[in-house]
């Protein structure tokens, strides 16, 4: 993220800047190598084409900075009016550092598990982050949201909201914008159903006591 990009976001009505911290370089995605996947020649990166036209491509392709630290977040806050969301946090240590640097919100994310396959799931990491900074900043979560009960669990464990990835893409491929609307409608209906069946009439009724973890049970 640069000062120019931040200004461009403000001018185009964006309401926040999301800074990804878990993608300094691509992960070793063996399944892509095994399947010999390459991007089809007819598929195009529309945004990159626009950056070619605007002479901003060099800035775009060099967005990953291996030398960046939390002082970069503090600097970014001084050059934009938009709130900063830090994406890719999985530990209390990083959550506290992000909050101390001035972040307005934290997105608990492991990049879909595609960066490093040994990372904890986001639903496992969420309680630790909530305990560390939930009283200071808003905490969001993504990863593995496939139905309304997944939304339920994340909200119950303290997430302010969840981000949805693949289901939205499935809906988009199936039926365009109407497909996306249908996916969101299904998730809403499933969430409403789960809340009703667990005695919750409003979101604020959800709490961590309503989520059962495997650690609650003895193992033989």
UniProtKB/TrEMBL annotation:
Residues 1-216 form the FMN hydroxy acid dehydrogenase domain. It comes from the Eukaryota. Its cofactor is FMN. GO terms for cellular component: peroxisomal matrix. GO terms for molecular function: (S)-2-hydroxy-acid oxidase activity. InterPro entries: Aldolase_TIM (IPR013785), FMN-dep_DH (IPR000262), FMN_HAD (IPR037396), FMN_hydac_DH_AS (IPR008259). It catalyses: 2-hydroxyoctanoate + O2 = 2-oxooctanoate + H2O2; a (2S)-2-hydroxycarboxylate + O2 = a 2-oxocarboxylate + H2O2. Pfam families: FMN_dh. Keywords: Oxidoreductase. Signal peptide: none annotated. GO terms for biological process: fatty acid alpha-oxidation. This is FMN hydroxy acid dehydrogenase domain-containing protein. It comes from Diabrotica balteata (Banded cucumber beetle).
